[in-house]
Amino acid sequence: MILLYVTVSCLLLGSSAGLQHETECYGRNFALPSSYTPPVFRGQLYFTPNGGSRRLMMDNGEAKDPRLKVSTISAKLTDLTEKDAGIFSISFDDKLQDVIKLEILDCAVEETRTYGDRFSYHIPREAAFLEFTPLDSEDQPKVLWNHTDPQTNKGGRGQVKGNVWEIMNVNQGDMGHYNFRRKDNTLQSRIQLTVQEEHRHYDAKDDKQLFIKYPSGNVPWTVTFTPKGEMKGYTLVNAGHLVEEDDWNNPLSNFRGRIEVVHYGIEIDPVKIKDSGTYEFRDPQGHLAQTADVVVNIELVPAMIYVIAVGVLFAVIAFCCCVKKCWSKRSSSKKAKSTRQATAALAGYYQDSNQSGGQIYSAAPDPSHQPLNSLVSREPTSTSPEPSVYTPVNIHVSSPQPEVAPLGGQGDDPAPTLGSDCLSSDPEPRFELKGLPSAPPLSSDATLSDVYTSDKLNSL
Q1: How far apart are CA 9 and CA 4, in angstroms?
Q2: Does the CA dihedral 249-252-253-257 come out positive or negative?
Q3: Measured over all CA atoms, what is the biggest interatomic distance in the chain, rounded to whole angstroms?
Q4: pLDDT tens digits, one per residue of 39-96
Q5: Fewer CB in 10 Å around end: N or C, the chain?
């Protein structure tokens, strides 16, 4: 008695440090810590499941639960399920102390299929039967296959082919856990099957035709429509038949005269912006097989076309400007070339006329570049010559010649000529420097010529 008191006191002192957390997988065994098993522990062990009532598990080394296996050196809880998650407590002097919190993990192999797919799994070698538990179900597992009782293999959803268990055309009713167990009911393998609906997406254009395909399987489908931005759905097709428009009670989704049930789907022609939303397809059992997200947009010209059009417009404008500029340059070049050719031809004509003794006419010179004979004073100078030696310069004085009309016709104005002051009608003498280059006279016929020598002019 004293030994038991000391043992329990030590356990209570140790447990005061905190609650011990333990985890274990579904279907396996949970071995209690040695501090709470014989021969160390001989007291009372209780268990309180999550959300359940407390029950006695062991007293003085004797098991009080059929799944608790107690030996002289150990104690373990076999074939764990979700219901075995909870808290273990010990009692001393009518007081309970929580010592262990057990959490059950689902260590099943996860398998995911789409509605209408095939699900198959290889049967383990030592498996004796297969049981099925729907997801979130508190019901007892249902035996789908028994190796020793072939009658259990008939009438169910799945079947065995060789060494493979398979289900054709799965739906949400097939979701759950599939457990293969041995003859002693111990878990050998565990599979969790999840079935999800098929997702489709449609981008439609306003006032165009839209066809939404049915899911796989030849069954009378029920179609519900939830408009975009809303939470409430409206039945359009019930068990393969179009619902009367008056039953829709949805002015925003008026499909009157535009929706039709056709082979392998439904057709909306023409589709409208207000038809955007989610269409759900369910089988006769209510299982969700497919969701179709429809987005209806107004058909617009792509922005790229505008960019290309603007680019082409700018290119055409730039090309026209370049052509115009090049044409202007070419016209200017031709005009300048024609002017140069005319000038060259006129100069050649003047040169030929000079060589042949003809008359030559030129434009009036710049006052800053007047010929030397224009600088000679017409008035006699009274300055006496300096006593220097120089070479006499002969000056010819010729009589004035009559003006000759320029080339180009009688209607044109007479062109200005070099030394026009010397060609005036004033009969003044004209001076010409001997020994210096000067322009030829306007007339080759010099009838009068007086020559005299001037020492003053030679000094210039």
Answers
A1: 8
A2: positive
A3: 177
A4: 889 889 999 999 899 999 999 999 999 999 999 889 999 999 989 999 999 987 778 8
A5: N
